[in-house]
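cron nightly-structures :: item 1 of 1
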Amino acid sequence: MTADGLPAARSGAAAVSAPRALALSAAAGVSAVLVIIGIAIALFFNPAWVAFEQGRSSVDLWTGWDAATVREVTDAVVMEVFLGPGTFAQTAEGAPVFTASEAGHMADVRGVVLAFAFVVLLAFAVLVAAWVVDRRRIAFWRGVAIAAAALAVGVVAVGAFLVLFFDVAFEVFHRVFFPAGSYTFDPRTDRLVQLFPEAFWTETSIALAVVVLAIAIAVAVVAHTRRRAAERRAAA
């Protein structure tokens, strides 16, 4: 058998096909992980989920605004992250919602979100290309199955860490993606952390981990089944 799961007599040059199969599996696997994470994040980074979780986090009490004002301001902020212009100059009750430092941090957030969205779209294109190139689909489905299974294991480990050390994980995430000192705010006075308090991020992170885990397991099972079917077709 060769690296792509075919009998040696039917595979042609095994020395050439092995690296090609490995590259296809790696490209498909990495791309699948990014697409899974991107899909899961999209399920939460939208006005519907944000409004639901803000209600659970008592954002109206933090801000002193009524629910309608909270929703109006938050919807504007979320849409600006995606559509721009990135100034985050929202107002409420005749006053600016954010200070200059808060607006600057949201601009940084927008940059990270757009960059990740680009990476996910690129990963989707690579995933489709790998599926097209690998006509037998064996290397493709092998890579997706292995990567999805690894993602599921990783999510369990990361999820356990989040439950036990959420503050540490939150700090590490911000240090990696944002300039030092640009993301520290006072919940007593700063609207950004009143609109998105710690409880909001804790519950959202846990829910996100559960969804990523569920999608990863489903993809791993489907990919494993497809790989076995492709191997049987190739051997027939």
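cron nightly-structures :: done
Residues 1-16 have pLDDT under 50 and may be disordered.
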